[in-house]
Amino acid sequence: MTKASPGTDPTGGRPVVPSRGALRPLGLGEVRVVDGFWATRQRVNGGATLDHGRSWMDKLGWTGNFTAARAGAGEVDRRGREFSDSEVYKLVEAMSWEVGRTASTDRDREVAELTELIALAQAPDGYLGTAFGGPGQRPRHSDLASGHELYCTGHLLQAAVARTRTGGAGPLLDIARRAADHVCDTFGPDGTWGICGHPNIEPALVELARLTGEQRYLDQAGLFVRRRGHRSLPQHHFGWSYYSDDVPVRQATVLRGHAVRALYLACGAVDVAVETGDDDLLAAVAAQFDRTLARRTHLTGGMGSRHMDEAFGDDFVLPPDRSYSETCAGVAAVMLAWRLLLATGVSRYADVIERILYNVVATAVSDDGRAFFYANTLHQRVRTVDVPTDEQQLGFGGGPRAPWFEVSCCLPNVARLIASLSAYLVTADDEGLRIHQYVDADVDTRLPDGRRVALRMRTGYPDDGAVTVRVTATDGGGFPLTLRVPEWATGAVLVTPTGRRPAPPGPVTVRHAFAVGDEVRLELPLRPRFTHPDPRVDAVRGCVAVERGPVVYCAEALADEDLDTLRVDPGSLPVDVDGGVLVRARFTALGERAWPYGPTPRRAPGAPLAGLRLLPYHRWARRGPATMRVWLPVT
Length: 635
Ligand SMILES: [Zn+2]
Description:
The relative contact order is 0.10. The protein is α+β, with helices and mostly antiparallel strands and 635 residues long. Strands 3, 16, 17, 18, 19, 20, 21, 22, 23 and 24 form a ten-stranded antiparallel sheet that branches. The protein has helices at residues 37-59, 64-71, 84-102, 105-120, 149-165, 171-187, 201-212, 215-227, 259-276, 279-295, 327-344, 348-364, 410-419, and strands at 24-25, 31-35, 379-380, 392-393, 404-405, 426-428, 433-435, 440-446, 452-459, 466-474, 479-485, 492-496, 499-503, 506-512, 519-523, 528-531, 543-548, 551-557, 566-568, 575-577, 580-587, 610-616, 627-629, 632-633. The longest helix is centred in the first third of the chain and has 23 residues, at 37-59. It starts with 23 loop residues before the first strand and ends with a strand. It is globular. Zinc ion binds next to helix 11 and helix 13.
């Protein structure tokens, strides 16, 4: 492997740095989000969410576990679930990206301090984990199916990669390398034939290999991917598919089982495929994801429709009131789509990222950044009930955003994505630049041939569909600038220095000898529209949804309106109203009856049609206890 120089990444940090592929990602130092929808969320993330996560992890003893492990306290004093180390690592990763984004010295010191804490628990042989191997604890690696040890190590490696790529080369990378070496020694070709019940070590090892040039880490990741799918883990009561151990990765046709596990494994498989030139493996995972998008994904981009095992349902099992759509699955799906976008250059994967960002990631976090959804339902039938801001929740579904859950994987996960978001917006291709997401951002980078280009992107997106990209610096000469026209955007127009032209969905490229001051303007038609489900999604047959650009809308009731009786007139197109969308709808008089079935279709008288205001789905449950629905039955 070719080795990058740790701590001197000229891009200012990127989560994924493939050595080959259609596109080269630009990093935090090349793309800065300066205003608008995502700048607000980045400020809240850095100003509240990271501290909120830290204070809960301190309060619950998850950070203290590292001190306790050094002190040899063992199981007696250990707090939290067996995977709580991973939440600390994810928080450190998020904080590291935040250091890269803001150059905050306070946050930098905090990462250094947490690194010292983590170091306390590392054994002389490199093993690092506070839940196993101590006095009174089960032996190391004695429960690969459920123990999450390698999963936790994966998050440690990802934190170290983030730290190193944002200028903090040093102790955390040393800790991660020793832990990775221990994994390779233990599970390598001459070691134990094992895999972790929760994938994550796979993409983490590949990224550490990309960072350090250490071939051994890549080989180990490949080994873990190849070992998966042979039913080597104990049979699970949800089946071997729960941990994607039912079918070898390259033979599977769709993602199945626990959604986050499946998506992390797919990320690792793409990474291994890219680094080893295994195009068959890459094609297999791409086909699995494509089929998952076609048959197992909610309108929001949310993945997972089974609460019991946090899992994908069978094809077209997508009931909105049982949408699990774990926030972590949204983050993981962004990670997978990003890897496939970089590898293939297929702009549809950027569409997927956009859908998930606006409808899962933006939905998950409260306005103040101190509460979040674990599951993201598409239909809240029972009014949410506010929860105390100082109490952790045990259940994951049906409630409002909560300050903390016993399993709080989602908060640091979404925090690391938001902190690093500017690294998911723009890439270079063979000759020029490609803009994938429309955000108020400044870009300053070098083309593949070394010439400098700086761009200023300004937009009111997603409220407004006009995107202006202005060249603010250039070394001269032409280069291609490619923008993405989302698949929903029929009638888009591209305005270039040489004229206007229609821009069909997909990538549109402007080739021009750009001078400073030149502008390219993309006009995306942002009209609200009805969206109809595939007839095989039985749970929403007879319903429509409303979307506007990438944003899914919903009906929310704060008072006594019964959204179960709502009927929308599909003959009247939805229209914009200030901050929302108006549809024509009525509430019907479906009263109580003893038996909800009968010999003829039930019809109920309804009030006259009237305007009903919908709001962006990501805005729901922010005004107090509410019921809500995305899919709306038609009259
Ligand atoms: Zn989660």
